[in-house]
Amino acid sequence: MSKSGTILYLDGVSVSFDGFRAINNLSLVLDKGEMRAIIGPNGAGKTTMMDIVTGKTRPDTGEVFFDGQTDLTRHDEAEIAMMGIGRKFQKPTVFENHSVEDNILLSLKGPRSIFPALFHKHSAEEKRRIDEIFSVIRLGDKRHDLAANLSHGQKQWLEIGMLLAQDPKLLLVDEPVAGMTDAETEETARLLKDIAKTHSVIVVEHDMHFVRELGVKVTCLHEGSVLSEGTLDFVSSDERVVEVYLGR
Ligand SMILES: Nc1ncnc2c1ncn2[C@@H]1O[C@H](COP(=O)(O)OP(=O)(O)OP(=O)(O)O)[C@@H](O)[C@H]1O
Ligand SMILES: [Mg+2]
């Protein structure tokens, strides 16, 4: 397999915890600019796969490359984040006591102190980027509200905006629509599709209606490796997938 043209390249990756193989000879390749949905039953290794990519967990064996050339197993979490891999954990972690806009300002990439950020001394370029982020995360009319007053779904969007403010090349998003209303779930699919126009994205999600809305290639993990890969129709009619996941 060639790494050129890939944003993420995992080959033969394994990791064990106390003798239990959570990731087992996993190979997964994401092209530059691609959005991929990852599904799979509880314990399949989806979150552990993200832990490996972000440097939180080091694999026992296998190759993990970013952008076709950078060996991620040689870098730590902070370095990997700086390279442009942004991660959204399941639980929203916004600064509740700050306005929505300040949450974005505080996340903007680049050397800055909190003081000018909070007193709105930002350049025209920063202003342009902030406006762009607000147009993506659908919170323009909430800019000056306290983050604490957002709905659960809106907090998830704000946190996605905070990720975008870090200017990542690759976004890893773990179960973004858990706990969202149906309307928020549908809006989140549109929001991620907008982001995917200019970023590479991996979305882990159990909600099949949402995965269908994304309309992208799907990888089903099971016992730490790829069980099936293709369109959602292909994967969801794959006997092995039906057996381990959809037919539970
Ligand atoms: N740090 C760890 N120490 C020990 N076991 C772990 C660790 N991290 C993950 N595991 C185990 O590895 C397996 C895979 O877990 P993981 O969280 O990656 O699954 P998942 O596919 O994200 O599941 P879910 O859909 O429930 O989020 C599980 O059996 C889990 O208990
Ligand atoms: Mg998980």
Automatic annotation (TrEMBL):
Pfam families: ABC_tran. InterPro entries: AAA+_ATPase, ABC_AA/LPS_Transport, ABC_transporter-like_ATP-bd, ABC_transptr_urea_ATP-bd_UrtD, P-loop_NTPase. Keywords: ATP-binding, Nucleotide-binding, Transport. Residues 8-248 form the ABC transporter domain. GO terms for molecular function: ATP binding; ATP hydrolysis activity. PROSITE patterns: ABC_TRANSPORTER_2. GO terms for cellular component: plasma membrane. Transmembrane segments: none annotated. CDD domains: ABC_Mj1267_LivG_branched (cd03219). PANTHER family: CONSERVED COMPONENT OF ABC TRANSPORTER FOR NATURAL AMINO ACIDS-RELATED, HIGH-AFFINITY BRANCHED-CHAIN AMINO ACID TRANSPORT ATP-BINDING PROTEIN. This is Urea ABC transporter ATP-binding protein UrtD. It comes from Kumtagia ephedrae.
